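Q: Structure tokens for this one, please.
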Amino acid sequence: MTRRPPKARTAFGPMFVTAIEQYTPPEHRIVDDPLAARMLPATMRFLARAGRWRPLREWLEAASDRKALGVWGGVLCRKRYARDRVGQALAGGIGQLVILGAGLDTIAYGWEVPVFEVDLPENIDYKRDRLRAIFGDVPDGVRLVPVNFDHFTLEESLTAQGFRADLPTMFVWEAVTQYLTAGGFRGTLSCLAKAAPGSRLVFTFVRREFLEGKEFYGAKSLYRDFVAPRRVWHVGLEPSEVDGLLREYGWAEREQAGPAEYAERYLKPAGRDLPASEIERFVRAERT
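A: Here is the predicted structure, written as tokens:
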């Protein structure tokens, strides 16, 4: 039986959204991920099949926006953004891919370079079970790396699995930073500071003013679920401070992407009238 670790639960929601999206006609689809539903537990796989009915898909999108504006569209757009940046990096000659906080994401599969999926040990156990159920075993070239980011074992754990620090690497750090303590966040950046020049990084962050309860951006229910009264999200940033922070660790910001960029690149071309959340942004950076 596939295990469902408590700390993996936050990964189920985005993959459920992605699985539902696969029933959208290709010309209107934001992100293609035929494996998304297969990563989910059996009950959620069954529920995701209901997405074949367009009225239900539209109802789910609208219901999500009523609860937390732009979360549904934001999940789809950030998945697409990460995939686009990974494809661009690997096509440009980057020789390794590291997924930090891989969760149930499937971005690691299908590449001809070594891939390292990093997550909490219990999440890695769940992922391994699903991969064996889907492929018969963990795909060739993919290493599953159990790490607790707050304990700063990232560098040692990657090296033990064959990671080469001297090779330019593509790092993906999606929907993770807000869950870390300040020490875990800075500790991970310290490890990334040792990456080879020319390495690339994409990561998301949640706006600090949201975590401080100063601006909810139509997502007050999300604040109640993840910030107060129980503190699940810890680290927040402001867009203007990101480049300065990265330069402390040898990286330079090359782009930030949020609702405006998502609308122009993904939503409008697909003919989708979906909002994308203002509370989260994606950053693309390069190791200098």
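A few notes: The first strand starts at residue 96 and ends at 100. The beta strands are 96-100, 115-119, 142-146, 169-173, 200-206, 251-257, 280-287.
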